Target: BET1 homolog
Amino acid sequence: MRRAGLGEGPGNYVASGYSAYEEENEHLQEGLRAKVSALKHLSIDIGTEVKYQNKMLEEMDSDFDSTGGLLGATIGRVKQLSRGSQTKLLCYMLLFCLFVFIVLYWFIRLR
Model:
């Protein structure tokens, strides 16, 4: 006696095996889709961070350039001061620095 739906016959076994492969493929596709989505979000976050870091580096570069210009001008003035005949001014600056150090030493000593 034959019962319907028991999978008798060669065609039914092939169809059930094909269905199992299809289910496994769909499951693997969903896993792959989730991983691709996670990688997409990660790459977007990395891109955003890179843009932010580049902006900060550009700002630092402009700050360093302006500071370098300021220091270059200051060093040029100091060189001009040391070369010139303004030794009297240089002597006054040295005496002032010495006075400040003596006063600071005196305050520290009293404490």
